[in-house]
Amino acid sequence: MGKTTEFDAASYLDSEEMIAEYLNQALASGDTDLLLSAIGDVAKARGMAQIARDTGLGRESLYKAFATGAKPRFDTVLKVLRALGVEIHAYPQAH
Fold first, then answer.
1. CB 41 within 8 A of CB 9
2. For the segment 18-27, what is each residue's pLDDT rounded down to a tens digit?
C-alpha cells in the first residue's frame, strides 16, 4: 500500500492571485475557524519567520494563534494580514 502524506495548502499558495482567492473563499464560508486556518496557511506559505519579523510577534506564538481551535486577538489577525499584504473590504450584502 502506498504512503500517504498530509495535505498542506501552503504548498499550493504560490501566487498573489491564489492567496487572494483562497482567503476570499474562506471568508465567504462564514466559518471563523476556516478563515483563521487559511490565514495561517498563507503565513506558512510566505514564511512564518518573516511574518513574525514583520509583525513584531514571536514565530511560535503565531503558530499557536493560527492553530486549530485557537482564538487569536483581532489585532493579531490584522497585523498578520497587513504583513501578508492583504486587505479586507466591506461591501453591502446583496438582498
1. yes
2. 899 999 999 9
Give residue for cell 511574518. 51
Encode pLDDT of 45-72 as tens digits: 999 999 999 999 999 999 999 998 999 9
How many other C-beta atoms are found inside a 10 Å radius of the C-beta of residue 30? 8
d(CA 81, CA 79): 6
Closest CA to 41 of 9, 68, 69: 9
Cα–Cα distance list, 85 to 3, 39, 42, 76, 92 (Å): 36, 12, 11, 14, 23
Nearest alpha carbon to residue 72 among 37, 31, 43: 37
Contact between 40 and 8 under an 8 Å Cβ cutoff? The reply is no
**Residue 38 pLDDT class (50, 70, 90 cuts):** very high
